[in-house]
Amino acid sequence: MSFLVLDRLTKSYGDTLAVDGLTLAVEKGEFVSLLGPSGCGKTTTLQMIAGFVEPSGGGITLDGGDLLAIRPSRRGLGIVFQSYALFPHMTAAENVAFGLEMQGVPRAERERRVSETLALVGLAALAERFPRKMSGGQQQRVALARALVIRPRVLLLDEPLSNLDAKLREEMQVELRQIQRRVGTTTILVTHDQAEAMALSDRIVIMNKGRAEQIARPDEAYGRPASAFVAGFLGRTNRLTGAIREAGGKLVVAIDDADWPAPPGARPGEVTVSVRPERIAFAATGLAGTVRNRVFHGSHWLLQVETAAGIVIVIRQNDGVALPREGERVSLAWRAEDMSIAAGAEAAP
Q1: Is the separation of the CB atoms in 213 and 229 below 8 Å?
Q2: pLDDT higher than 60, residue 165
Q3: Model pLDDT, residue 53
Q4: In this predicted structure, what is the pLDDT of residue 107?
């Protein structure tokens, strides 16, 4: 049996469904991210797990027990909020010790666990420092230590890195993942940041309008998106209108004058093809177009290619290989397995 199970979890506010029948099974020690745009239901889901919001329907079990029957303060969950919610009049050590004091942990044990946890997050030397004297990254570590020191059954993270600048956020992503793996705490992260979810998670739940559009490993969801919404939300993608038709006795996916083998089970008709920019190469044959713009991003080049099927974005690594110039005619090619195909011409998310 899975460690944490959400069974058709639902939350409605009047006629509005914030969470619509979400089912999710999380294994012990797993890191799962709830990812999606504002209003998709991810934060409401986290709040129902924490006990801050009562579900309208469905159930939540933790280690086989009914979590909804337990008061929020007794659920044994660690929570890190977006604002960190540190007590400004307490030192780092006092902030971390607060939850243990509430649990009645003896002083000697409390001091030992606080010291160990501050060392775990790299703040042993700052135990006596107040939050106002700390950087954003240091405050984030204190908040994480406070959540971990109580040895939670599940760690809930609500956009914990969103207040940090881009460079520090990347550094903290690496540290957070290393700490989570070292401790082995089952973790649920809420985020709207696609890169963050993919960097940290064993699996991601891509949510849209209260529903899970796809639950998968980051590489699987990125490479094989289950819907047009997932393809468009989880990183940059090209969406092209094509058709599955017969050619030479077999079915192909045709985009303008170029074609690729159709996937098994495909049926003739109009389709929407999604392909990631970094999977597209310049080749001798393929989808014809003209390079309209080249933009240098240091580690890679981004090129906009005008084709009969629309503008196609191509990303190529800055590896020293010469690339087409603006105004140059090119042909674009990619592997059939790098395409995600949906029936009909779906609207962009």
Answers
A1: yes
A2: yes
A3: 96
A4: 94
